[in-house]
């Protein structure tokens, strides 16, 4: 059994329901493996720094006039369609990837530049899964009924809401658990995004969903992610059962 890190042990802890929220406590407990496990509200220096970096990423709007944003778009195209030249940053070709129009920058408004970073991370880290979802190789059922890229932007936004990282005080256990995972791996958010995408696609196909049901599928995806993040043996994103869907 893995030894709990030192930061779990602090004064003024309580064990029970989310009634602790807003009570000025330092730590709170919830049951894992039959025992009360402490989750601290006060962050370690490493957690604070990594959370600060992640928040900075979340606040960056996509700006099509910025060179590094343009290069990220080109990199996404290259990773998505290797060997196929992109004619222009504004092109009908983008519709092949599931953007709503010729200019993908208009679809980033909801989640910002981090949603492009998430797609690029997925494409480079789990290229097989990315290509399977993008091109629906071996797919079945309602395989073309959600636009891949726009779905990716919505997944980023859903995770941002689920983790509630902008809150002054933690309002969910999921947020506290994620911050511990972030201290283990700076790319925890991006990894969680990849897991969320394959979970969403799996649920989509199992339900034979239509585009009108996209929000319902996204909600059920969030429920599944929250359930797995709070499982007894899940201490890293890689421990989540649905992580095994990635390849």
Automatic annotation (TrEMBL):
InterPro entries according to UniProt: ELMO_dom, ELMO_domain-containing
Domain ELMO: 68-229
Protein name: ELMO domain-containing protein
Origin superkingdom: Eukaryota
Organism classification: Eukaryota, Viridiplantae, Streptophyta, Embryophyta, Tracheophyta
């Amino acid at each position: 059994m893995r030894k709990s890190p030192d930061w779990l042990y602090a004064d003024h802890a309580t064990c029970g329901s989310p009634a602790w929220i807003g009570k000025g406590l330092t730590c709170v407990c919830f049951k894992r493996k039959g025992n009360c496990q402490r989750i601290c509200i006060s962050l370690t220096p490493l957690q604070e720094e990594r959370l600060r970096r992640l928040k900075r990423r979340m606040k960056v709007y996509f700006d099509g006039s910025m060179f590094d944003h343009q290069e990220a778009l080109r990199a996404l195209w290259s990773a998505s369609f290797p060997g196929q030249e992109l004619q222009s940053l504004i092109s009908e070709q983008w519709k092949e990837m599931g953007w709503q129009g010729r200019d993908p920058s208009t679809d980033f408004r909801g989640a910002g530049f981090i949603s492009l970073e998430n797609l690029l991370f997925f494409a480079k880290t789990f290229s097989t899964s990315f290509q399977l979802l993008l091109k629906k190789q071996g797919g079945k059922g309602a395989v073309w009924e959600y636009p891949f890229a726009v779905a990716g932007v919505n997944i980023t936004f859903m995770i941002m809401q689920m983790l509630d990282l902008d809150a002054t005080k933690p309002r969910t256990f999921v947020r506290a658990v994620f911050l511990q995972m972030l201290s283990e791996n700076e790319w925890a958010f991006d990894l969680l995004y990849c897991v969320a995408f394959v979970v969403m696609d799996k649920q989509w196909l199992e339900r034979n969903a239509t585009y009108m049901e996209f929000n319902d599928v996204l909600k059920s995806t969030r429920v599944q992610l929250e359930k797995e993040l709070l499982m007894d043996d899940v201490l890293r994103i890689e421990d989540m059962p649905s992580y095994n869907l990635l390849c």
